[in-house]
Amino acid sequence: MSDSRAWDQRYAGEGFAFGAEPNLYLRSLAPRLRPGLRALALGDGEGRNGAWLAGQGLATTSLDWSPVASAKARVFAATQGVAMDVVTADLTAWEYPTAQFDLVAWIFVHLPAGDRARVAEGAVRSLAPGGLLALECFSPAQEGRRSGGPKEPSLLFTRSIVETLFAGLETLELLEGAVLLDEGPKHQGQAEVIRALFRKP
Ligand SMILES: C[S@@+](CC[C@H](N)C(=O)[O-])C[C@H]1O[C@@H](n2cnc3c(N)ncnc32)[C@H](O)[C@@H]1O
């Protein structure tokens, strides 16, 4: 999907396209989080990850270009009883603040190469020293599988793309392999992903 209107359509129905529970990789990072940290959830869709981070006590900004997703994320945060700043903006055009976040969550956001590099640059800039960047995205081995992800192969993440994008960060982990997704109707079944955690020096 290549524009916000297409995502609006995808999010138009009832329910949550990628579920209401947070992404499992993000949830596994809970021991590294503590209340008061500042988080940015990129391409946060209907807000499952942002709202979970806010529920962990993080001051969370949830960013997505789909107004429909943003509206659903606001309602979702309210029903979860958490405060979350929901921003409707294009990730490639947003003015990333400098050193403002302790965690950036980049979960299943697949962008064309130029946009990907621009967003990575902004995301890295927005991290405070010691801040973490958590990423989960589909790898090329996902091509042809029906468990989720973009149909356009150039949007998939390879290990070397990830290493290049975040070369300025310390790699805490970089994992590639099969996982079993159970994230709403759009992410179901065995899938090939990259999971990575980086820290800004
Ligand atoms: C596969 S969904 C994942 C949503 C969420 N991260 C999750 O895991 O539930 C990808 C999201 O990225 C958003 N997105 C894609 N390109 C974007 C852009 N250029 N600016 C802002 N959001 C974008 C889409 O609107 C969509 O909500």
UniProtKB/TrEMBL annotation:
Keywords: Methyltransferase, Transferase. Pfam families: Methyltransf_25. Residues 40-131 form the Methyltransferase domain. SUPFAM superfamilies: S-adenosyl-L-methionine-dependent methyltransferases. GO terms for molecular function: methyltransferase activity. InterPro entries: Methyltransf_25, SAM-dependent_MTases_sf. One of its GO terms (biological process) is methylation. Coiled coil: none annotated. This is Class I SAM-dependent methyltransferase. It comes from Plastoroseomonas arctica.
